[in-house]
Every structure is written in C-alpha cells, then in structure tokens.
Amino acid sequence: MASIRLQLVFLAPFLALLFSSGALGAAAETTNGTAGAMGGSSLAAAQSGVFSLDSYGARGDGSHDDAPALARAWKAACASPLPAVVLVPGGKRYLLSNVVKLPGPCKSASVTLTVQGTLVASPNRADWSDRDRRHWVVFRAVDGLTVNGGGVIDGNGEAWWKNSCKINKALPCKEAPTALSFHYCSSLRVQDLKIVNSQQIHMSIEDCSNVQVAGLSITAPGTSPNTDGIHITRSNDVQVTNCNIKTGDDCISIENGTHNLHVSKVVCGPGHGISIGSLGDDGSRAEVSGITIDSVQLHGTSNGARIKTYQGGSGYARDITFQNMIMGSVKNPIIIDQNYCDNAKPCREQGSAVEVSNVVFRNIRGTTITKDAIKLSCSKNAPCHGITLQNIDLKMEGGNGAAESTCQNARWKKAGTVLPQPCTSQN
Ligand SMILES: *[C@@H]1O[C@H](CO)[C@@H](O)[C@H](O)[C@H]1NC(C)=O
Ligand SMILES: *[C@@H]1O[C@H](CO)[C@@H](O)[C@H](O)[C@H]1NC(C)=O
Questions:
Q1: Which of 29, 30, 32 to mutate for ligand 1's pocket (most ligand atoms within 8 Å of CB)?
Q2: What is the pLDDT of residues 111-141, one digit of tens each?
Q3: What do you get for the CA distance between the two ends of the chain, in Å?
Q4: From 3.40.50.720, 1.20.1200.10, 2.160.20.10, 3.40.50.40, which CATH number describes the 258-427 domain?
Q5: What does UniProt list as catalytic (predicted)?
Q6: Any ligand 2 atom below 6 A from CB of 257
Q7: Catalytic amino acids?
C-alpha cells in the first residue's frame, strides 16, 4: 500500500513515515499536516472524519480490485473515536471482486458509508470461492451504521442468473451472493441508494434492530431468478419507506423472527409482491408479529399481499395488517396459504401448522389478471383465525368477468366489504 500511494500522491516526508508505520487512520486523526496537493487534502479529510477510498489506494477504474482499499478505509474509520465517514467518491466505478466483510463493533457511535459513485461486483463467478458464495458486501455487528450517498451498488448479476438452476434446469442449484447484507447491526440507516442487478437477494437485514430503510431504488429484470428486493429476518423495529423495487422475486420478503416491521410508500413490480414466509418448513418453529404494510402499490406482480406457511410447522404469524394498497394487474392479490409447498412432489398432509391470526386486509383496490382475487387456503387442523377483510375492491383486468375469492378453513369476518363470492363469512 505504501509504495502505491507514494507513486500516486505527492506526500510530505512525515506522511510517508506514517504510512510505513501502517497507522494511517489513527495517526491522521491526531496529526495536523500542511502537506501539498492531495496528501494535504486527504489528511485534512481524515481529520474531519472522512475516509475516502481514494486515500486508501483505490483506483476507481472499474477493473482493478478496490476491495482491499475499501477494507482499509473501513478499518481506519471503524477505529476512529469520532464519527467517521467512509467515502466512495462520485463519478467513478470501484470494483469489489468478491466478498467484502466490513465488521464492527466500531469505536465511534456513528459510522457512515457514503456511496456517491458506483460499487460494482465482479462479473466473474469464479472470483467467489465455494466457501462463501452467499455474500458480496457484508456489514456485521456495527452499531450506529448509516449507508447512504445517492450512488449505485451494482451486483453485475447476469452471469449468476444465466447459471441459476431456475433458468437452466440442467445445472445444479448453487447459492449466489446477496449484494448487501447487514448482520447483527443496531441503529441502522440505509438511505438514498440504487441497488441494481444483484446476483441474488439485493439487500438482507438479519438479526438487526432499530432499522430505517428509506429512499432506495432496487432494480433487476423481472426474469432474474431469486433477486428479492429486501429480505428481513430475526429483526425488530424495522421501518421501510419510500422505496421503488422492481425485481424477479419478492419485493419484500419477511421471514422468521421479524417483529414490529412497518413498511410504507413502497412501489413494487415486476416481481413476486410482498411476502411473509415461507414459514415452518421442515417442521420448524416460526415467530412473526406486528407487521404493517401500508400505502404500497404493486404493478404486474405475481402476488400482492401474501402469507405462506408449510404444513407441519409450529409457532405463529400474527398481528399483521395490509392496508391502503393499490394493485395493478396482480395475479394473486390477497393470499394466505397455510398449505404452501414448493417441492417437486406434493407435500403430505400434516397435523400441525404455523398459527396465522389477527390479519387485516383493508382498503385494497385494483385489478387482478386471474380470477383469484382473494385466496384463503388455511390449515384443516389449525385454521387461520381473526382474519378481517375490509373495503376490498378488486376487479378482473380489462373487465374480463368477475373476480372470485376462495376460502378453506378460514375464520374471517368482513367489515364493510362486498367480497367477490363465494367465500362465506365465519368467525
Ligand atoms: C490540530 O488542529 C486542531 C485545530 O486546528 C487543534 O485543535 C489541535 O490541537 C491540533 N492537534 C495537534 C496534534 O497539533
Ligand atoms: C424461528 O425463530 C424462532 C424464535 O426465534 C426459533 O426458535 C426457530 O428456531 C426459528 N426457526 C428457524 C427455521 O430458524
């Protein structure tokens, strides 16, 4: 690193000394320099708490691997006792060739990654080792983390999609990276970013608490496999607002261990819609509660508001509200499926189920492209209960006949809604 920097930058001798001691981050914060040109400005920047990738040896030419530079800038920022910003400068493309781990805990109560330019993944799948094919950029155990900046995180996923077993059935099913992962983070803000063409899931929030996600644009082709927009699991107190998500899989997937999640002002489609589950696979326990999906639009998605659980599981999915939704050309606008099965052979009937209760669907209007506007396919042994359908107005696209609803084992009440028949109300 020292030699690269010395070639690139005109540096005052004392600065060269700091680099050779390998203590740039810590030293820069406590030393006042008046070195010339870039040396001086990067030093001043580090003093003000900004750790630019360009000061840590990044090229930003889209072809050299800048992952080591990002890791160094992160390390320095994370060791800073003052609020620190790792800056990805605008107007350039920084290649991060495979998994980049950005671990905490950090010294300061606040660390920010500001992406103004583009972080781009290697298009070459061989750059990932079999040891960890599931991740690209991973933050772990960082408190007070903000990721923002208006720039782009580009998973360059085309090669992964082509080689997915969902696209080419002859190939074995293998894992592909999630573009942006947050593990064990608290007080997390992710704001004002474009995440595009992820290899698989675009953003995953796991084991986090106190999370605000806002102003994201997430885009991948509708045909790209498994490219969920935002995936949330084992996390509490999460808000997602003002996002635009167009992908090939779930817009937002809400998995086991999510409690107190509020999603609002999100526009989805194409993709698979908003999904809670699948829960309870392989007889597992699931716990999901306190989910509000409010003011969401879905356009051309395969599902709208969906809860899906396998037979044979246990636990619960409860206190869930889907409200103020607009659906355009959605295949299955409202669906609870306690008999979900995506195996090649039919899943056998089982006695137990994840309990689905206190679910409200309210103020939902728009169009469906199949007759199934509302489908409540609940468990025979553990029927879903406390289901409220209120003010639902779903019509067949283009006026092609009446929309329908089907219900099995569902205890639901209608509150001021005229349902497409033939579901009969039970409590
Ligand atoms: C660096 O400069 C700041 C502000 O100009 C000053 O408060 C601080 O004492 C200086 N530190 C050193 C080590 O000279
Ligand atoms: C789901 O979460 C619950 C509660 O945290 C846990 O007991 C269970 O093992 C989890 N299930 C799976 C499949 O991870």
A1: 32
A2: 999 999 999 999 999 999 999 999 999 999 9
A3: 69
A4: 2.160.20.10
A5: 272
A6: yes
A7: 272
